[in-house]
Design a protein that fits this description.
The protein is an all-alpha fold. The chain has helices at about 5-25, 35-50, 60-80, 90-95. Helix 1 (about 5-25) packs antiparallel against helix 2 (about 35-50), helix 1 (about 5-25) packs parallel to helix 3 (about 60-80) and helix 2 packs antiparallel against helix 3 (about 60-80).
């Protein structure tokens, strides 16, 4: 049976694939590479935190899960904005909700 830590590691890997294969080259706005880099830095931070967190540290894993979910939501909104489903102002405003890191 997979542990929560294993599941979160797989989710990090999935998000990394999305960043590399889907978002990296689809930016249409000038300066949007910063969004890709910011997401990449945040994901790297979460992967480091995950590797330093014990499988028995449920509070730590829950915190990582929360932030990973926030990052995945942001990446999803950026991706959907490139498809015309959201405007960039919506993506940016949604990215700065209280509780985001």
């Amino acid at each position: 049976m997979r542990t929560l830590k294993d599941f979160l590691a797989q989710e990090c890997a999935n998000l990394e694939i999305v960043l590399d294969e889907t978002l990296r080259f689809k930016y249409g706005l000038r300066g949007s590479e910063e969004f890709f880099e910011e997401c990449r830095v945040r994901l790297t931070f979460l992967k480091t935190e995950l590797s330093n967190t014990s499988e028995t540290d449920t509070d730590g894993l829950q915190r990582i899960s929360f932030f990973l979910n926030q990052l995945a939501g942001l990446v999803s909104r950026i991706e959907r904005s490139s498809l015309g489903q959201y405007s960039w102002p919506f993506v940016l405003l949604s990215a700065h909700r209280p509780g985001d890191f």
